Amino acid sequence: MQPVNITVVPGDGIGKEVCQAAVEVLTAATRGGANLSFEFLPGGAECYTVAGTAFPKATRDACLSADAILHGAVGLPSVIYPDGTEIGQDFSMQARELMDLYANIRPVYRYEGVASALTLDVPIDYVIVRENTEGLYAAHGGGNTIRDEVATDTLVMTRHGITRIVRKAAEICMARDGAPADGKRRITIVDKANVLRSYAFFRRVALETLEEFPQIEVEVQMVDAMAAHIVQRPDSFDVIVTENIFGDILSDLGAATVGGLGMASSAELGDRHGYFQGIHGSAPDLAGKAIANPIATILSGAMMLDWLSKKHGQQSLADAAIRIRLAVTGMLREGKHLTADLGGSATTGQTTQALIERMMDSQVA
Asked: Which domain holds residue 227?
């Protein structure tokens, strides 16, 4: 069987630890099936201090030629440009532009056995579909500071960008079973259309695009109200589609309702390339202590296997993703081998090994 080539960029802080954990789990999950080949390459803030760039040419070339990219986290607060922005972020931002990774898919799912920041005891299972190449983050590296008195960044929306992210949201919605509260397939458009023309344009084009999908119920929400709704009625959502920075902020809020950033996976997809990482940062204060929660990166790896399965037509990859999710579900339900952020005392390695053993036991059975 031809190898599936995965470029791994661990990055900074806990990125190295969670990437290593994910690779071990992915290797175990695909044993006897798909042939995964991993190449580890540098990128991020620490890389910049050594090589003078956060995204070396060798890493860039490998990302472009790989079947998929698995990423840990980038950024160190001490490695910054004179304007105060983090140099390490250049890796992720340039990767998105280089490979046109326009769709950032961020599931928010409440696992049994994981404490939530909410007092509500309701099922939570929705997906935030974040436009990943436009919006306010399109200004990265292009804003202006004038005489240390005025700073500007430009928010960018295009009809092409809005249309394709909304169609991606509809594709995801049609493959799901609807919102937990009522079972309805629903897309929630989130914007700030009452104040800003760019968001009014986003809403108008999104509504026009969703006319192609009469099977899907459509609603619109202002982002400020949406922040409250995610806390007050999270079970009413199915798929949420929004602009870049709003999707970034709302997904962190959603993560807090299902156990924290250590539980939050993501896929960044283009028409040809796929890039997978947990949504958390590099957490340099946790680095090297073997206490980081690897589940977000491991679940991102499962998303990678699903995507690769469709790309290559290999059912064994999708089967491996199922094995990973079943192992995570079982471990969380039992409440054993959990890291400190989930109320346990396990190390990163102990959590990883427990998941591998659970998968091996299920394969034997």
From this structure: 117-257
